[in-house]
Amino acid sequence: MSRPDTPTLDKVDGPSDMTALDDATLGLLATELREELISAVSETGGHLGSSLGVVELTVALHAVFRAPYDKIIWDVGHQCYPHKILTERRDQIRTLRQKDGLSGFTKRSESEFDPFGAAHSSTSISAALGFAAARDLGADTGHAVAVIGDGSISAGMAYEALNNAGHDKRRLIVVLNDNEMSIAPPVGAMSRYLTGLQSELGGLSASIKDHARRARALVTGQPDRGTLFEQMGFTYVGPIDGHDMGQLLQTLRAVQSRADGPVLIHCCTVKGKGYRPAEHSPDKYHGVSKFDVLSGAQQKAKSNAPSYTSVFGHALVDEAERDPKIVAITAAMPSGTGLDFMVERFPERTFDVGIAEQHAVTFSAGLAAAGMRPFCAIYSTFLQRAYDQIVHDVALQNLPVRFAIDRAGLVGADGPTHAGAFDIGYLTHLPNFTVMAAADEAELIHMVATAAEHDGGPIAFRYPRGTGVGVDLPAIPQPLPIGRGRIMTEGNDVAILSYGAHLSECLMAAERLEAQGISATVADARFSKPLDTNMIKQLLRHHKAMITVEQGARGGFGAHVLEWLANEGGFDRGMKVRTMTLPDRFINQASPMEMYEDAGLDAAYITVNCVELLGLVGGRFPAPLQA
Ligand SMILES: Cc1ncc(C[n+]2csc(CCOP(=O)(O)OP(=O)(O)O)c2C)c(N)n1
Ligand SMILES: CC(=O)[C@@H](O)[C@H](O)COP(=O)(O)O
Ligand SMILES: [Mg+2]
């Protein structure tokens, strides 16, 4: 079909504009949508490969279902850019993941076409089932459609939802978007099973599929029990070609009009479809920085310092060279966590368990119970999902699992869903735990060594996303004395007690104070548990005031310091102590420094708070809470 003078995409603001389009024009719309997507993401960066793979599926879903009355729920939401373009947000798509711009994920507050917010995986079937149950109880809502990837369906939550939905039998549509990729190549028995289904049934018409099944039953003498999904109570449709608009429309229309129970549509797609660099390297184009469309070359980080992630990965390999009991565990993020270096050097001692943080933690606990030294490397935000396992399987049994917690603090473009805000609080209050935060990349190396030799119980260390501060890296790592901090600069007016990677901001604040005639001591606490209470006592004795600073939510390091002061420190009266944490609200995406500024947690705010605490002038505080 030749292209019309005015692109079809220009005539589509929302899905209602698609109702008049015939099937061939919908195909054309998909082509234009893909071009718009590539052009926009080349300017903003973002999750390119996943979004490219669902262009036809997105067009077909919006052509067949009636959003926002019907609820289309994207799992993770990282593939929702074509959906955003088709649902009244095309004019903002080039603000994606930027300050004050569109979120990189689905977000309820952003659009009525995003019925459920996401970013952490494997929640879509549960949420869709919630909508379906509400509908059946009289809520004014139509079909509930969950779109979930082959990687995301490997997580426990997805099985819990399938199990419930298959038993429940209410009308629910699950589209399994199977591109045979997670961020890295997918792992696990389910992935193997889905690949088997694709090769066994892919490309056959429905009647030939039935025939093949009957023939197999005759030959093997075993009754045809259908697919795993059928055994779980779903009607299984597929596999279908997720880039063939005709097949997609025919299948979705049939399901839309006839489904009366749970249906799973197995839709096969190609990650990165239609953009050669992304199709060839689906892992490298899963999440991209800004790129040149012609060459595919992505913008490089400006700093020459290594990333914390790679420093961790190399430090762990070095420890593993020395100690054969060291093993490493990732939940589907080998490159994101730096464990790809371990995979390369010690493949047999590195375990990718799929998107399964809960399992990863208890699996690590099992390894520790058997005498191994497991490093469980999980982003702060994803570790939240495994909290009960941390408490019940690790802390309670005092098992020496080493938690390497990447993406601590505010992460930038991924926004509040990916902020590592809570781990200080949720780990430091657990009995048996030792908890550390790295102030820079050299400290991170020492903390890996500290964790490696710590067999006395669970131990965790956190570090941020991105490049380090550029300090020299130690040739020989030195395990740190447990519960001992260090003094960085000495002054006598105010003490700034930093925990973690905001140390550089604290040092900057000290310089600004110096310029105002105020002398500050800056200390690096290193540990939030156990606290270096001797150092804290000294800081309090020799300064007029003290401020704690951390890249985490309230109820973290500062709160532990205050609690110790009030209960055991004997310093509860007349002390000038203030904590600086993230505020009690979620911070929208921007660059990490802009996010910290929004949070009232940068060098400028630290400086002003010190001045104010000393009673010298009025302080400057973050803007009041937004509604
Ligand atoms: C709980 C959780 N763990 C890890 C991640 C990181 N993550 C985001 S997308 C992704 C891969 C998802 O694969 P799949 O569902 O197949 O989608 P695709 O990118 O292939 O379209 C992972 C591991 C996450 N978002 N949530
Ligand atoms: C969607 C998702 O959860 C991941 O792709 C995440 O965006 C990766 O973040 P990093 O870029 O920090 O590894
Ligand atoms: Mg996938």
UniProtKB/TrEMBL annotation:
Residues 306-471 form the Transketolase-like pyrimidine-binding domain. The keyword Ribosomal protein does not apply. Keywords: Isoprene biosynthesis, Magnesium, Metal-binding, Thiamine biosynthesis, Thiamine pyrophosphate, Transferase. It catalyses: D-glyceraldehyde 3-phosphate + pyruvate + H(+) = 1-deoxy-D-xylulose 5-phosphate + CO2. Thiamine diphosphate binds at residues 78, 119-121, 151-152, 179, 275, 357. SMART domains: Transket_pyr. Binds 1 thiamine pyrophosphate per subunit. Binds 1 Mg(2+) ion per subunit. Pathway: Metabolic intermediate biosynthesis; 1-deoxy-D-xylulose 5-phosphate biosynthesis; 1-deoxy-D-xylulose 5-phosphate from D-glyceraldehyde 3-phosphate and pyruvate: step 1/1. Its EC number is 2.2.1.7. Mg(2+) binds at residues 150, 179. GO terms for molecular function: 1-deoxy-D-xylulose-5-phosphate synthase activity; magnesium ion binding; thiamine pyrophosphate binding. Pfam families: DXP_synthase_N, Transket_pyr, Transketolase_C. Its cofactor is thiamine diphosphate; Mg(2+). It is an enzyme of class 2 (transferase). GO terms for biological process: isopentenyl diphosphate biosynthetic process, methylerythritol 4-phosphate pathway; terpenoid biosynthetic process; thiamine biosynthetic process. Catalyzes the acyloin condensation reaction between C atoms 2 and 3 of pyruvate and glyceraldehyde 3-phosphate to yield 1-deoxy-D-xylulose-5-phosphate (DXP). PANTHER family: 1-D-DEOXYXYLULOSE 5-PHOSPHATE SYNTHASE-RELATED, 1-DEOXY-D-XYLULOSE-5-PHOSPHATE SYNTHASE, CHLOROPLASTIC. Belongs to the transketolase family. DXPS subfamily. Homodimer. This is 1-deoxy-D-xylulose-5-phosphate synthase. The lineage of its organism: Bacteria, Pseudomonadati, Pseudomonadota, Alphaproteobacteria, Rhodobacterales. The gene is dxs1.
